[in-house]
Amino acid sequence: MLEITNLHAEIESEGREILRGLDLVVKPGEIHAIMGPNGAGKSTLSHVLAGKPGYLVTEGTATLDGVDLLGLDPAARAAAGVFLAFQYPVEIPGVGNVTFLKAALNAQRRARGEGEISTPDFMRLLRGAAGRLEISQDMLKRPVNVGFSGGEKKRNEILQMAILQPKLCILDETDSGLDIDALKVVAEGVNGLRSPDRAFVVITHYQRLLDHIVPDFVHVLAKGRIVKSGGPELALELEAKGYADFAEEAA
Amino acid sequence: MTLVPAALKRRTRAETAIDAAFAAVRADLPGAGRSEAFARFATDGLPHRRIEAYHFTDLHTLVTAAPEPARRPSPEVARATALAAGVDAFAAAGAARFVLVDGWFCPDLSDLAGLGDGVSVSSVGAGLLGGRQLAGRGLDGLGERLADGGAAADPLVALACAFYTDGVVLRVAPGTRMARPLEIRHLASGASVSAHVRHLIVVGDGGAAEVLETHASPDGVEIHAHGLTEATIGAGATLSLVDRQCEGDQAMRFSTLAVAVADDAVLDHTVVTLGARLARTQVFARLGARTQLTSRGATLVRGRAHADATLVVDHVGEDAVSRELYKSAVDDEARSVFQGRIRVDPVAQGTDGRMGAHAVLLSDRAEAMAKPELEIFADDVACAHGATVGALDDALKFYLMSRGIPAAETEKLLIRAFLGEVTDAVASEPVRAVIEADVEAWIDGRERSA
Q1: A112 sits in which H/E element
Q2: C-alpha span between B411 and B374 (Å, rounded)
Q3: Among residues A31, A142, B33, B345, which is most buried (max CB within 10 A)?
Q4: Where is the SUF system FeS cluster assembly SufBD N-terminal domain (chain B) (predicted)?
Q5: Is B443 on the interface with A (CB under 8 A)?
Q6: Hey, are the CB atoms on A51 and B401 less than 8 Å from each other?
Q7: Hey, are the CB atoms on A103 and B418 less than 8 Å from each other?
Q8: Dihedral sign (CA A34, A38, A39, A43)
Q9: Are B244 and B428 within 8 A, CB to CB?
């Protein structure tokens, strides 16, 4: 599904290379956790895949089902099936949450040559997903993320994921700023979306999230490269020993 | 009679044309005070950047011509103009209609029925003619507002007072609520002319009035449209005023509202600026005790348009609340200017004033200037002002795009959201719908020209 080969990327304004030859293959139905010390390039990877401006890819490729993601703008990547759950979801005053969700879903459907969803079908979809994520009517009516708590913002990200039904979900430190109850709600939301056709890349600093979203593979990202891969046990090992070893290995 | 002081040298082409126009029409225009008003204009001519109130809107440079004053249109021209103008957007608001073509009232195009007992609408033109016989009773009160807040000293006000031909006189008796809103619809025949209109609105104590004004003219024609509205809102009365400016792309529009809000009265004022090559909207408001003023503006400019909103809000009574919020979307090489001054008199304790001016620049060459000012002479007041100018937020654009919304639609959503703070606050549902459609059409026009 997702194939990343020898990906090099730098921050455009600084010319500083963050990703230095990253390779990763994710197959449908799999959950891959990417862990690593601060500054390893975890968030940069998520941004480069989603197409955030400000990064320059200098070498390598990233494809989703054979489609070259790096040549597409963020909207086209979303229509191709990429979804990034933001570490820091932004507030958008004046744009209602429901309006936004419907506009996004219909834009993706149009881009894929599908018809727009009818309002009753959309409302049914929305009510179901919102209910499972404990998102109130009030939150749906408000402008996107405006006045939401940290936990509400993260739940709203998962709600968008549930509505948009992407092929590839990238979760960028979704656990940051969440207490244990909110973490469980978010994890259940993610687990509810697991399917044989959908893959997840879960970026996290801590092992805690992986107790709730159990990965098939765990990768250690250090100095812009995957330096070690393994099963869920690798996360426990990291939790016990820290990242010190990998920082040195990569250096 | 010498109308232009001999000492004046180096008149611009536009000023020379204005001088000649006044000399030509003066004898045909009834009503007092015109020569005095013109003298106030002529002394300094069109204001330039060294006059503080015109620092960002230098009329001396921007106004390069002065089309001849419009003559009363023939009934055929008036009918053809109304036909060409098409459907009246405010029809859905159930408004009565007072139609002017090139600044002249056209009774045949108007519908003034059903405003209710105690509401009288007449034309300034009729009042002026009547004035010759009846000592101007129909225009009682005209000019009273101009002493407030410096309106009389303004050169655009002076021009309107010198040249005005027609306008609305709306009187709402004390305790009376208008049965339907009154729309003042300004149309232009398409001739390159200057039109000068003056309105008088008097809402008696405890009354309520709603006035919707639309200015429209065809693209490609330089018209100069001058308007002066003098309004008196009695104690405990309410006036809702919507000014919707959809002039053509070569038009110049100059509008002034001079308003006195008596104790416990409410003024709800909305200005939407969508057209004109050069537009200046001025508000001089004088607020009594416990009054509420809301003045909100949405300015959408593109091309090389220049739009200026200038407010002077004078708190002269205790515990009045004023809220001014002006937002501009500025594209291409257009410019938006906001100047707002809240003055709080020593007696105006308990004043609560808040003013905001925000502009979003949609191109690298767009410009926005904002100058909010507070002049506070009382000690127990809460006043705040804020101004921001910037591009659409890249982080918001990326967030929306990352959900699949294409770039163009993303900008559209964000522009609409930015202006929504102004448009959403318009209380009347049908009026809000008209303004939202205006904003939508402007945004769509932006895509087409891109």
Answers
A1: none
A2: 34
A3: A31
A4: 32-184
A5: no
A6: yes
A7: no
A8: positive
A9: no
pTM: 0.91
Task: Write out the H or E segment, with its range, that includes residue A2.
Answer: strand A2-11
Per domain, the residue ranges of chain A are 2-249
In total, the C-beta contacts within 8 angstroms joining chain A to chain B are: 77
Residues in chain B: 450
- B411 to chain A: closest CA residue: A95
Question: Is the minimum CB–CB distance between B10 and chain A shorter than 8 Å?
Answer: no
> Per-residue pLDDT for A219 more than 50?
yes
In chain B, the percentage of residues whose pLDDT exceeds 70 is 95
Residue B40 lies in a domain: no
Phi, psi at A70, each rounded to 5°: -70, -20
**Do residue A92 and residue B404 have CB atoms under 8 angstroms apart?**
no
Chain A residues whose beta carbon lies within 8 Å of the beta carbon of residue B399: 86, 89-90, 92
Residue B252 included in any domain: yes
Q: Locate tokens 């812009």: which residue?
A: A224
pLDDT tens for B160-215 read 999 999 999 999 999 999 999 999 999 999 999 999 999 999 999 999 999 999 99
Amino acid identity at A164 = L
> Cβ contacts (< 8 Å) between A73 and chain B: which residues?
401, 406-407
- List the single residue in A74, A86, A164 with the smallest CB-CB distance to B401: A74
Nearest to A78 among B403, B413, B420 (CB): B403
Give the class (CATH, top level) of A2-249.
alpha beta
Total tally of structural domains belonging to chain B = 1
> Which DSSP symbol is given to A203?
E
Residue B221 C-alpha, separation from nearest chain A C-alpha, in angstroms? 36
Please measure the distance between the N-terminal and C-terminal CA atoms of chain A and give it in whole angstroms: 31
Assess if residue B10 is contained within a domain: no
**Statement: residue B136 has pLDDT above 50:** no
Percent residues over pLDDT 70 in chain A? 98
Chain A contact present for B416, CB below 8 A: yes
Residue A92 to residue B400, Cβ atoms within 8 A: yes
Q: How far is A177 from chain B (nearest CA, A)?
A: 20
**Residue B380 domain boundaries:** 72-391
User: How far apart, in Å, are the Cα atoms of A189 and each of A34, A86, A169, B40, B313?
Assistant: 20, 15, 12, 72, 53
B414 touches chain A (CB under 8 A): yes
Residue B448 lies inside a defined structural domain of this protein: no
**Residues of A with Cβ-Cβ distance to B416 under 8 angstroms:** 94
